Predict the structure.
Amino acid sequence: MAIKKFNYISSATLASASGSITLGSIPGTYQDLAIFFSMRHDSAGVTNEVCYFRVNNNTSAIYMYSNVWGDGSTVGISGTNHSANATEINYIAGCPGGSSGTGYFGLLELYIANYASTTYHKSIHGSSVIPRENTSSAARQNLVSGNIRTTSAITQVQLLASNGNFAAGTTAYLYGISS
């Protein structure tokens, strides 16, 4: 088996609060993509907030996903079925809200297979963690997998805040995966 190589493509860091963080101009020269997000939400009175994910700024119903999460005492599932596509992948990750302890950021690692293909749909898999310093619950772990039902090559990825904004310092890193 060939060793996979991570090739840095780009990164973005929010200098001020914003409702989304976008990585664009993605070249089609790699086999897969890996994206790493470090995020925090600015919503006051909230310890964790939901994040959404979209590609190519496409708001059509092309996203299918399954989501499993747990925090040590509670577990849950959510998602779409084959006949009910969504306009984004809801709850791709959670992130600490404005009431979380100072300096706490959530982490999302996302893998997109065959992102440049113009023949096949795109499979995704992601894992995220939300530290929860100001609650009695343990950190929340979230696993997501799904399908982006388009044969268009992915040239842009976007992480969206569900309410309000991501805080300054939210960062995204994009890597192309090659053999």
About this structure: The radius of gyration is 16 Å. The chain has one domain: 7-178. The longest strand covers residues 5-13. Residues 45 and 99 are 5 Å apart (CA to CA).
